[in-house]
């Protein structure tokens, strides 16, 4: 079923058009600052031109974000929680232990033995979607793609030397191509921001603590909690990468809404999922967390043992970045670049 038109999406996001923020953006061609309406720039960036030189204000669809550094879109919560995690006594030892016990090679072997390896002669259409994401983010690394049979909307990435992306088949049933590009961009964002190693540690810890016995579990408890907290925050960075890869806010929001409610035939046959009420739901959550410390605490407690944050929380943070963060600056070509551009 077709997603909303620009006008419908704009109305879902900003029911009162006057509330849509305005930004000053510098033209990358002539340097003139342009006053742009965030709603128009986000929903229809390819029709925004500089008032002085007439050149497009934003990069063309799919144009690579040349040399972009992951720090350009890293969520501050991701940065601070990872710094806190690294500061925990014993963490460097744990990293060394995980690397010696379980290199990324063994996880790759697991995929080779249980999932389908994609390539030129196997699901080339899926490889092309990954390539679209990779080129938009101008990533030098070329991860291997695996497809795994599972009814759930899910994907994962691991590894740093020979990285790979795994997507679940259920995701392909429920998402359109642009939404798949957003999910793949999300995974590539984890890779670009070098989340792989720490995420691998979390996976090993989750299975390893069962083998350690009660004492080991008690000792590793604070570390596991800190690791999970960082993992939840790292999702916010990856969501931004997903949006930068597909450059379609509606698609990124639909992915999150489908993660929360699914988009199975039983639903789509009867009705159409509406974005506007879901955005209202996320904004209600933001307000509750802001106004009432108890709801904020409850939300924290409820997600403490989870590696993924609440979906509405992710929507809330993505919208916040799009409206008030540097999303549009990045699309206008103003962003932090990696010191050494990644080699192709
Ligand atoms: Zn200009
Ligand atoms: Zn993720």
Main pleated sheet: 4 strands, mixed
* Morphology: globular
Compute the CA-based radius of gyration. 21 Å
Mean pLDDT: 84
Oligomer: single chain
Describe this structure in words.
By secondary structure, this protein is α+β, with helices and mostly antiparallel strands. The protein has one domain (73-321). The strands form two sheets. Strands 3-4-6-5 form a four-stranded mixed beta sheet, sandwiched between helices. The chain has a two-stranded antiparallel sheet with strand order 1-2. Strand 1 and strand 2 (33-37) form a beta hairpin. Helix 6 (124-136) crosses helix 9 (196-246). The radius of gyration is 21 Å and the shape is globular. Helices cover 57% and strands 8% of the residues. The structure holds zinc ion (2 copies). One zinc ion binds next to loops. Residues 122-321 form the Peptidase M48 domain. Keywords: Cell membrane, Hydrolase, Membrane, Metal-binding, Metalloprotease, Protease, Transmembrane, Transmembrane helix, Zinc. Its cofactor is Zn(2+).
